[in-house]
Amino acid sequence: MAASMAFSTYIIKDVYFNDYHGRKNFALARFLSAHYDHREQGGIHFIEQKARLLNLVGINTPSKAMFLPAPFTAEQPTKPIIGIHAGASSPERCWPAEKFTRLIQMLLAQHPQVDIVLIGGTNERALNQSIIDGLDDGRENVRNLAGKTNLKQLAACIASFSCLVVGDTGPLHVAVALKTPVVTLFGSASTAGAAPIQDLHLHRMVVPDDKNEGITAIRVEEVYMNVNQSLRANARDRVSEELT
């Protein structure tokens, strides 16, 4: 819509299928992405899908690695920070707030030296606060930054994290582009479309044991274990960099 209002000569958009709400005779079908139908061919990453679309119009994509083109200055924390993004664009992508509370409680009990930073947009501030309010102790180690950062400030914040716990949502991809380790919570066993495709040694994915229950079925203990593994691996990487 924005491209149309800007009088763009050409608009290249991938809408994932070439009909409209199941209408086989949709008049605009030839203007949509007829080369690939997600309902018939699953298991392709969205980045790969966009690269194929660009290739169709003669644009080569030699690298599919993500990066942030906007300059920013990364924060320099004095102690490890675990980031958490609890919100998402739709409820089925959100892990329950009470589980985030339990995760934070377990992490602070094991790692009292770390800070916990909850990020998000303005509309996620109340969600983050409900997570903090549920804590028995350790609130002084937890900050709610939802709605307090613009995009550059958010990137600087995420770049400082030792690990980010996040669902299938925007900050996940920002973290991957910044090479910040992530523990990603997926609501489905199918992660091919959005899982990290670069620096795989940095990232961990958690999917529900019971696919019928979605993301709510992911156990706190499993996320806690993955965060601990990420922190240990990140510490080893830092030592290795210092030695070399």
UniProtKB/TrEMBL annotation:
Gene3D superfamilies: Glycogen Phosphorylase B. It holds the Pfam family Glyco_transf_9. The keyword Glycosyltransferase applies. CDD domains: GT9_LPS_heptosyltransferase (cd03789). GO terms for molecular function: ADP-heptose-lipopolysaccharide heptosyltransferase activity. GO terms for cellular component: cytosol. InterPro entries: Glyco_trans_9, LPS_LOS_Heptosyltrfase. Keywords: Glycosyltransferase, Transferase. GO terms for biological process: lipopolysaccharide core region biosynthetic process. This is Glycosyltransferase family 9 (Heptosyltransferase). It comes from Izhakiella capsodis.
